[in-house]
Amino acid sequence: MAEKLVEIKDLEISFGEGKKKFVAVKNANFFINKGETFSLVGESGSGKTTIGRAIIGLNPTSKGDILYEGKKINGKTSKETQRDVIRKIQMIFQDPAASLNERATVDYIISEGLHNFKLYDNEEDRKNKVTEIINSVGLLQEHLTRYPHEFSGGQRQRIGIARALVMHPDFVIADEPISALDVSVRAQVLNLLKKLQKELGLTYLFIAHDLSVVRFISDRIAVIHKGVIVEVAETEELFRNPIHPYTQSLLSAVPIPDPILERQKELIVYDADQHDYSVDKPKMVEIKPNHFVWGNDKEIDSYREKLKN
């Protein structure tokens, strides 16, 4: 039986109040098992990053619970719990240029967390830890005295990965870590993340808008549309049996390498108006073992029929 590390229950995240209130995420329910890569996929503005930032405490939540190792970490928590969360959960940001301090050396950037949490015995121990992590992400010791602007996008993202992992976190939120990189560098960074996961026993929440990328790295995938998680399943199951119309639409947009087949394929356009939730309200239902779909009773019945055929 897999052990749950993170659990999200009926989560709502909103911004503003009164008439200006905007609900960015609603009814989010999922869990992440220890040691797995769980991916959150959806188009821009669907609430993926908002959820990631809420887990780490950067976004306040308006309803629901975020549990880490069974302990609630959102809302009002003690300073001790907040400190524990910062130490155990780290984030790799989308834009490697914007998330690094341009005025600080790479050595300072990576060491900042070690300083804040006193995670080293003496100066020699700190240097050893920084050197070890910089080597493990594929950079050299002489890079430590340089500044972020002296590096390429891929190298900057490696610095961001090193900064997160030097803290020895248990859980890493990777927020579209390759979307700002060249295609040739993307595979290198994905391979690096997989390698480090094996070596350090990490658990990942991988946020992306491209389903073909997450297929390579994920154990399970959650599909999110306009703040609502519409489908959760194991990776290959989701690609074989996409049930929700929005998931089918996303999958139809994945490019096929063969130009002839690419021209022949039919794109599925998702129309949110096809759902009538005025009376029959939707909920998350386990339609097959470990395969969850968002829908009302009528839709769930029709999905089950399609699975039989």
UniProtKB/TrEMBL annotation:
Topology in the lipid bilayer: Peripheral membrane protein
What is the protein's name according to its record?
ABC transporter ATP-binding protein
Where is it located? Cell membrane
MF terms from GO for this chain are: ATP binding
Primary location group:
membrane
Q: Which domain of life is it from?
A: Bacteria
Organism for this UniProt entry: Streptococcus pacificus
Database matches in Pfam families? ABC_tran, oligo_HPY
Can you give the residue ranges of the ABC transporter domain?
A: 6-251
Keywords, alphabetical: ATP-binding, Nucleotide-binding, Peptide transport, Protein transport, Transport
State the similarity comment.
Belongs to the ABC transporter superfamily.
Stored SUPFAM superfamilies: P-loop containing nucleoside triphosphate hydrolases
Show the PANTHER family listed in the entry: D,D-DIPEPTIDE TRANSPORT ATP-BINDING PROTEIN DDPF-RELATED, TRANSPORT ATP-BINDING PROTEIN
Q: Which InterPro entries does this entry report, sorted A to Z?
A: AAA+_ATPase (IPR003593), ABC_transp_ATP-bind (IPR050319), ABC_transporter-like_ATP-bd (IPR003439), ABC_transporter-like_CS (IPR017871), Oligopep_ABC_C (IPR013563), P-loop_NTPase (IPR027417)
